[in-house]
Structure formats: C-alpha cells, structure tokens
Write a structure and sequence with these properties.
Layout (H helix, E strand, L loop, with lengths): L1 H17 L21 H23 L5 H31 L4
C-alpha cells in the first residue's frame, strides 16, 4: 500500500516542481537593528492603543452578528478587554508618576 501511495504521488510532485516559481523570500524583522526601540512605557502605550483600536473594531462588528449567544459572548469579551486596557493604562500612569521620584 505504501508503494502505491509513493508511486501515485511522485508524478504530482514532479509536475509541481516543473513549474517555474520564485524561491520563497525570507521575512524581514519589523524593526531593523539600527532603528531605536521605544522604551517599555512607550511600547506599552503603543500596544494599549492598538488593543483599544481592535476592541473598538470588535464592538462595532457585534451589531452585525445575528446569533444571540455569539453576540452576548462578543459583548462580554469587549467589556472584559476594555476593563483590562483601562486598568493597564492606570498602572502605566502610576509607574510613570513614580519613575521621576527615584
């Protein structure tokens, strides 16, 4: 049985290799090594802004969901993420207030 599978799949592999396809490109890192990285507070602020944007998009899309259970679940998730984002922003503000006092 194994030989049958190998024999039948070999022509398919040969056909796919005959086509001229460009070699896959490697992914480049989002930031180059020379680019300055934001400090942790700035990075957290950027991440929270992006998270808030995604949550707002999710909240806007909930009205298009016809399934009541799914709508309830998504609304609950939106509220959960909003609470988390708010608390993380408050923690970040507290850290920034304490940082200059050191």
């Amino acid at each position: 049985m194994f030989l049958t599978l190998c024999a039948t799949s070999t022509p398919l592999l040969a056909q796919s290799n005959d086509q001229k396809t460009p070699p896959p490109t490697t992914l480049q890192p989002a930031q180059s090594a020379a680019a300055p990285r934001p400090d942790s507070a700035q990075q957290m602020q950027l991440d929270l802004d992006q998270m808030e944007s995604l949550v707002n998009n999710m909240a806007a899309q909930v009205s298009f969901i016809r399934d009541t259970n799914m709508s309830i679940l998504l609304n609950t998730n939106v509220r959960l993420w909003m609470v988390l984002i708010r608390d993380l922003r408050l923690q970040l503000q507290e850290q920034q207030k304490r940082a200059p006092q050191k």
